[in-house]
């Protein structure tokens, strides 16, 4: 079976590579010539554990091919996935210009039946616009070629994307015809031989499912952050509260960990986009508006704790940051709490010493020479007036606290992920502040 993936960003590259790993012949198409040439040379544009090895193996085998021209492959494939970006517009809604341009290119170049699958996260109703754009281009050519559209939203977690794709909890597919359903069944069956977990539904429902899933997870995070902040005020311990409610089978324990806010390429963008979709329909998403407001405020909580400790006088203070990526196992700093924190620290006159296992290059791109980029966790804390944990990387879990205390000017630790044992920190002489206690 031959397929094409248009867009070699995070979703497109992981999708194409994993399909190739299962024996499908995959053409990955992107207009970025430099990116395509780098991929051919084994240079991967994103950090995702295990992806570089899988890309190179399948490229060498000939199952994974890279090109800048859709015309090179469109009439060789049965299924074409559109995985181009949908950046937020000024009002927070998803910008569909790249999605619709791909649709127009398809209509201008296709010569046989094609199943066009939207993989990008797009608002409800986008598939209809894609179908219309393809049909308009075919009409201009005077052709009446049959095609189908489908929606196949991704549910990949950065840092665990390969596992998520190769062994998914479920695969959601929106289709309009039996022919499209058969093709998608054929494509996904190798991943789900023992338990075929593909959920077929209508296209608008598939488009909505992606937004609803991410919005639910974001809601749980903001809810727990709100509860954590109240716990601090009334003298409760949010860890005890989390355990108390997480054991309720109706609630469960996932996504109940308080912290300094969510970030990344999905949750913030998708929550905003769903709010805007509803607003255009005249329906206010009051709960999600609150979710977004809580999250934006939570990104400043570590700065407020630091500012409170130093009574507002942060000028010249040397602050160490552990973690820059929005979560572990990625170099992604989009909407990361660290970005808000760094901006506030610099504006307050602080000197910021930062360390992250993989996101240093991205941080340098964003902040240039305004930060000191430490070589490890110990280099970051030399003469520090405070240490702030922002991202819960594994290598941060068991440091030598005695060595760190000797290196710091003041052993003040602000834990943005509630990673550490308060008793151990206090025994080592640290002033320890966390979220929700």
Q: What is the CATH C-level name of the largest domain?
A: Alpha Beta
Main beta sheet:
6 strands, parallel
> What is the CATH architecture descriptor of the largest domain?
3-Layer(aba) Sandwich
Per the principal axes of the C-alpha atoms, what is the gross shape?
elongated
Please, what is the average pLDDT?
96
CATH superfamily heading of the largest domain? NAD(P)-binding Rossmann-like Domain
**Strand arrangement, major sheet:** 3-2-1-4-5-6
How many domain units? Answer: 3
**How many strands?**
14
- The portion of residues assigned to helices is 40-55%
Q: Which fold does the CATH topology of the largest domain refer to?
A: Rossmann fold
Class derived from helix and strand content: alpha/beta
> What ranges have pLDDT less than 50 throughout 5 or more consecutive residues?
none
N- and C-termini, Cα separation? 55 Å
Counted by DSSP, the helix tally is 17
Radius of gyration: 24 Å
What proportion strand? 5-15%
